[in-house]
Amino acid sequence: MNSSPTRRHAANRCQHVIPQQGREFFSAGNAARSAGFTLVELLAVIAVIGLLVSLLLPAVQQARESARKVQCTSNLKNLALAISNYATSYGLFPAMGRNIYNNFDDNGVIVLNWVTSILPEIEAPSAYSQLQEKINLGILDDPWNIPEFYLGIYPGGVLRCPSEPGSSLPISDYTGQLNYRGCLGDLIQNNQLQPLSARGVFGQNVFTPPARITDGLSQTILLAEMPTGRAGEAKYQDPLGSILMQTGSGAYLGITPASCRAAWQSGSFDVQLDNQVPGTRWADGRPYYAGFVTGLPPNSSKCCSNLSDASWGVFTAGSRHVGGCFVAFCDGSVRFVSENIDAGSGQQPSPSTLTGQSPYGVWGALGTCAGGEPVPAY
b/e per residue, 146-178, with b = 16+ CB within 10 A? Predict the structure, then answer.
């Protein structure tokens, strides 16, 4: 007996529903099984992320260093402008170091550097006032005797290159970093001991009048960078920041630029004492802490004539930037000078006159203020 149309349609509906439910069930099961990553896919994602990081990291580091260079240039411009304002006010450039007399020191004299003279011009009037108060009372002592006082009035970031790591040196007389130095010209021998011998803009107790800069303001160096040194074993691996100290008949006796460079290359030398780390006494007026010499090109060796930070020597400019350092000129301009700039052979001894051409190539000529040298492009 034939089924009625109604029954056939109901049967057909049942036949269609059941397979459809089964397909839905199996499709859901397959989706559940494929919802997570396989190990291979996870490793592939990690590899891609690692590749992206390796590609981006150098770019990020380069961008950060570019920003630090911009800040370093700004620091030098601000310091050069401050010195220019000082020279406009007083008719003289500040001295590398000026003698300050007190009532109780062994020799009655301490030496404050050029930074202390321009504190009002770099917006540090409080530091200037506190120094001046002690000076007026005759009770200002050396930085290594009262480091807490000098550290407390430290003018801050304008004196430190941002590419230079913040100091964590375990030395008791740390008073604040100074990474910008005044130019002593090309004078090496007795640049600490003879105050009348100033080949550059700066000299010990020498206040240079602008009229003496006959080589031209745009061709005469005012300031340059120098890295802060290191203490302990690290100083032996840091020729950029460390200074060789001569003892006895050392390999660089007589100190020409070439003999200083040879001493570092020999691998047998003494490095500065841990309480005489360069760049750690921002107010100290001795060339060892506040000046540089254009005898060797930037980022070259540095040497001192004796085992003492009070001695003369080859105090070479440099920086933690790659390839050279920033230099401020007397016209206020700031330029990056390559470590490959011509500095002659370095075999000649230190100049013995205040005028006359430098024996140390283009770099030496840029350091003198009245050398009369033609300065080619560099």
Answer: bbebbbebbbeebbbbbbbeebebebebbbbbb
